[in-house]
Amino acid sequence: MSKSGFVTSIRRQSEDFPGWYNDVVRKAELADHSPVRGCMIIRPYGYAIWESMRDELDRHIRRTGHQNVYFPLFVPRSLLEKEAEHVEGFDPQVAWVTRAGGKDLDDWLAIRPTSEALIAEVVKDWIQSYRDLPLLMNLWNNVVRWELRTRLFLRTAEFLWQEAHTFHATEQEATDEVATGLEAYRAVCEEWLAIPVIKGRKTENEKFPGAVYSHSIEALMRDGKALQGGTSHMLGQNFARAAGIEFLDRDNQRKNPYGTSWGFTTRMVGATIMTHGDDSGLVLPPNVAPHQVVIVPIFRSDDDRLAVAGAIERVEAELAGVATMSGPLRVTVDRREETPGSKFNHWELRGVPFRLEIGPRDVAAGQGVLVRRVDRLKETIALDALAAELPRRLAGYQALLFQRALDFRAANSHEADDLAGFERILDDGGGFIHAPWCGDGACEKRINEQTGATIRVIPFDAPDEAGRCLVDGRPSERRVLFARAY
Amino acid sequence: MSKSGFVTSIRRQSEDFPGWYNDVVRKAELADHSPVRGCMIIRPYGYAIWESMRDELDRHIRRTGHQNVYFPLFVPRSLLEKEAEHVEGFDPQVAWVTRAGGKDLDDWLAIRPTSEALIAEVVKDWIQSYRDLPLLMNLWNNVVRWELRTRLFLRTAEFLWQEAHTFHATEQEATDEVATGLEAYRAVCEEWLAIPVIKGRKTENEKFPGAVYSHSIEALMRDGKALQGGTSHMLGQNFARAAGIEFLDRDNQRKNPYGTSWGFTTRMVGATIMTHGDDSGLVLPPNVAPHQVVIVPIFRSDDDRLAVAGAIERVEAELAGVATMSGPLRVTVDRREETPGSKFNHWELRGVPFRLEIGPRDVAAGQGVLVRRVDRLKETIALDALAAELPRRLAGYQALLFQRALDFRAANSHEADDLAGFERILDDGGGFIHAPWCGDGACEKRINEQTGATIRVIPFDAPDEAGRCLVDGRPSERRVLFARAY
């Protein structure tokens, strides 16, 4: 909690979205820049938000049979180079340890940009028989991908993430696993973070280096740009072959297993900010909010102060341990020596779902004023009804934010059938653009060069629809999802 | 779970302790070596043990008012060099990133060996007034200290740990904080891991580089060697001065705050193994055991198999969610197609506190045979009493292991008053040696060179006792704790 009571001002979302975003992240004390180029410091409030989504995703990962493990930070250069497409994709972004313990290293060590190459090398000792499969592992760790243009949470040289790595006896099992990973991400995004997403397949140009194909979920931010919210990759036998992993199958044949990997990162803190936030700052869905309700005492005289403090203590005691859909109710009381106005500003900036104001007249009437963050809707509520009502209000608010984001996406999703229309939409605020594409990577690149938009995914639920490619007019079988993206 | 049913043999603890340790770690699938020199892979079972102690320590850290944060992996060389003693202590162990993003770096980046230097630099922007203090932060992360001779969990080039970093307006508050950190470690060691520890102060030679003084807890392993189980450092104003952190105090004077830092690492998984393990493998205290009870069905005929399976399903359902002192009861049923003997071996190697054998005659009698891991004590127990009795049995077993470790320590703690006696004790199996020391670092070094033992700590509870230094005969005011150590 900031100990200063000055009203914090931030830039307006509608006028300067990047400036607004930066102000929210820094002034709500979520994260900050560090003396290390491109690396961020995650402050307590931002880290608590990350911990909430991390723990929820961890529950999904465990429930689907994966086990947490740890692999080294370093990937020797000789291993990284085994899968040709993989190293080509990551090499420009690698940070290299060339010297350690006072000596120059013969085999340089990459700080892991991702762990496929190392894991494939290790598990070849663990996978001997079909009985050793499936191997379902998950890692929570830090990775480094050197970036020149960084933005807090969204693009940083070091970030925190989860990377699952699995191996399977059959291609079908691996196909199912790619879907399991993606579904975990959808569930956390939609049900925990209240961020609606579209599932789909990445184009060849956009897939993970070394993968057979990549799936992702795509969300729409309030500035009309898309954000990729998690990716799940079919690695096929690529890494297994490169590392020489073989197992004896039921049919007594030696085979390479099929691999998958999937990852979800701290950039989702940024996605949460940009999906729900407004000109007053953060707007947090109750499931992920470190504080769900903040109680602000209102008083002028010392007598009033005492009466209000007493009532708040009783409320606090009554609310302790009350169950909500995301664990015990998280209530905080702001007892700082500040004006109510500066406290309102402080907690609105931090996106706390509900504020409960209690003044002397409220105490006399056994009530308080409950104010909903996103629209400042006020209601008078009996203090002895809080324990029963707050969990319902929070569930309603969670649903409201999701619906609000769905509505925003609907209002900012468009169809375009030619390049002129496509560019008009981008000029007019952007958003999701569903448009026909022939499937040729050259057309994809040309659109990107001309407009800055990329194909986010080929959505799984895109209906068959004959059309003509935006660029070269060749036949298209369905619309794909375009947007400018983070 | 290993899918092969071969009985796994390990070396004997009494004959080859290092060999036994290595066998336990690898054959119980806790951890393994990696293709990266000095770095380990933590496998699911070992990682679950780490997660248990991590989560318990995290609860202590939060309860005492600390907040989790994240700081970058990298410390620029220019920052690491600001505190002279600090850089001198860590420089030989640093791994350096000299090249990143395709370019050589001007300011090399150390992979953090610890984060004091970076944090001091950052918080100078956050600490302006006494109202910004205390600043109580905690980080869960990975650090690298380049080691040539490594041992799984105990000494690895990369390890996982928690590092708390705090800043205070007064020296007294920092003094109290050093004690808070150490007490959290004592509580986790003694109450969670059942490892008795001795609290004390490190000598000048052994303190943290850059600290004013260091406190630690010391435990005794079953081979008679000591292991440091967590350290808590008074940094005084050293790092604050080096980084230029100043705050305006209540008296309107600008001052440097006082700092502390304290850390607890994955080596404590190794300490748990070496405190409790025996010739059959791991012995886990119930609080930290990933599985507390394993149920093994016993049958020969198919009819028996069905009857036993049915009874076990009923037991499983009845035990689901039963509360124990460390959360819901963790029960697993071993339904693999293996002999009971190989299953017994499998779970004994993994240190599961209780095995419950259920055969057809047991089903008929409504009972099972409960076998305690550490001494194979058997009792017949009614199946419908399990839900009530198992939490008590686990609490009793937790206390038993702690008492067993206390007894072992008592039997292996000695006093020595001269160097000949001191060396006899070391030749005779080692252990803790309480002996007089004059306080001179030269004597301390001489003992180390001659015997391999070091002063572990000057125990807080060592009574005043006039004596003469082991080495040079000068006066000593109390005994200090010597041992050979990990």
Considering the chains and any ligands shown, give keywords for the structure:
homodimer, Rossmann fold, 11-stranded mixed β-sheet, Translation Initiation Factor IF3, 5-stranded mixed β-sheet, disordered N terminus, BirA Bifunctional Protein, domain 2, globular, 27 strands, 3 domains, 486 residues, alpha+beta
The largest chain-to-chain contact, stated as pair and per-chain residue counts, equals: A-B, 56 and 55 residues
CATH architecture of the largest domain in chain A: 2-Layer Sandwich
Q: What does the oligomeric state look like here? A: homodimer
CATH superfamily assignment of the largest domain in chain A?
A: Bira Bifunctional Protein, Domain 2
Report strand order across the widest sheet of chain A: 3-7-8-14-11-10-9-24-27-23-22
Helix content of chain A: 25-40%
CATH class of the largest domain in chain A: Alpha Beta
CATH topology (fold) name of the largest domain in chain A: BirA Bifunctional Protein, domain 2
**End-to-end separation of chain A:** 30 Å
**Secondary-structure class of chain A:** alpha+beta
Radius of gyration of chain A: 25 Å
Tell me about the largest β-sheet of chain A. 11 strands, mixed
- Unreliable residue runs of chain A: 1-5
The portion of residues forming beta strands of chain A comes to: 25-35%
Count the E strands of chain A. Answer: 27
The DSSP helix count of chain A reads 14
* Basic shape of chain A: globular
Mean pLDDT of chain A: 96
What's the number of domains of chain A?
3
